[in-house]
Target: Histidine--tRNA ligase
Amino acid sequence: MSKSLQAIRGMNDILPEQTPLWRYFEGTVARLLDNYGYKQIRMPIVEFTELFKRSIGEVTDIVEKEMYTFEDRNGDSLTLRPEGTAACVRAVLEHGLTGGGQPQKLWYIGPMFRHERPQKGRYRQFHQIGLEVFNLDGPDIDAELIVLTWRLWGQLGIRDSVKLELNSLGTSESRGRYRVALVEYLSAHLDKLDEDSQRRLKTNPLRVLDTKNADTQAVLVNAPKMADYLDDESRTHFEGLKARLDAAGIPYVINPKLVRGLDYYSKTVFEWVTDKLGAQGTVCAGGRYDGLVEQMGGKPTTGVGFAMGIERLILLLETLGQVPEEISRQVDVYLCAFGEAAELAALALSEKVRDQLPNLRLQINAGAGSFKSQFKKADKSGALYALILGEDELAQQVIGFKPLRGQGEQQNIAFDALAAHLATCVVQG
Model:
C-alpha cells in the first residue's frame, strides 16, 4: 500500500479554524503600518543563492546549515529565502527605489524557509512581517520602529508579557577592535568553551555571546564588553535612541550580549522577548545595517528594520487568552429558505442587504434540506441570528428573525426593513 500523502515535516497547513486569528493579526499590523506611513512591497520567495551568501555571511549558521538550496534546470543555484531583508535590499537596488538619497519606508509579509529541527513556535516554513527603512540615519527612525511595535503590543493586549532588550554593535571598525579583544580573551579560556563556541571563535566570534551553554556563559561574565569599544558616533546614536524611548515611556533593558545572528547589523540591535513561550522567547527582532546596501553593490545607503514571527505571536495570543471572541465567529446571520420560490427570493433579498451592509457576514443555506436540518446548520455556523423564509413569509413579504445565541423571541421583519434591523442588531450590536 502506498504511503498516504502528507505535508513536509515543519511545513504546516493553516486550517480554516485557525485562519481568522491569522487574518485578525495580519489586519491589525497592516492598519498600524498604514497609519505610520509604511508602504508594502512583495518579493519572490526564491532568489539566487549568492544574494544570501553576500548579505547574511557565509560563516553564519543560516548559510552553513539551514538554507534550502538547489540547482534549477539552467544550473543556477537558487535558495528559498531564509529571511526578508536581503531580498528587500535586492529589490530596492534593482528598481532604484533609493536613488538620490530618497527615503523609503517599506514592509512585507510572507513565508521564509530554514532547515531547522521543528519544534513549537519554530518551523521550517515560517511566516514573518518585516519592516525596512532606507536613507534615514538618525536614532529617531530606530525609535519609531520600536514605538510602533510597542503600540502594536498594546492593540493586541500583550504589552505586559514582552520585554525590550537593546544593544549597540557600533560601526564595523569599532566592532573589529572588539572582535580582536574578545577572541584574545576567549582563546585564553578555550578549554572551558563548548564545542559550538570553539567553532564560532574561528568563524564568527561575536555569536559566542549568544550561547545558551551554561559553562560558556560563566566564562563570558568577565569578557570584554562591546560598550567599551564603541566609537563616539555609535555611542551618541545609542544615547539618542535611549532618550527617545525614555520620552515615549517605553521600558527597556540593555543586554550587552545581544548580537543577532546575521553579519550585516551595526549600531542599534534590539529584540522583543517573552518568557511565556518557553525557549522560543524572541517574537520580534531587528536593528541597523548601514553597510549592507553598499556591500550588495549599491551606493552607501543607511538601513534599519526588523522582522516579527507570526507563528510565535499567534501562539502568544493564544497562550495569554488574547484572542478576541468575535473573530472566532465567521457568520453573523444564517438565512434558511424552504422551497424553490423562497430560495430565489432569498438570493435576491440577501444581495440587497449586502449592498446596504457590506460588512455583514451573511450566509445563505445551500443544498436545501428540512427545517430541522437547516436550523442545525445555522446553529453550527456560529451565527448570532437565523433568518427564515418559507411560503407563508414570502406571501406576506416578511422574513422570520430568530436569535440563536441568547434571549429574544422570533419576530417577522418586512423585506424593506431588514437591513436597518440587522444594522441595529449585528453591525452595531
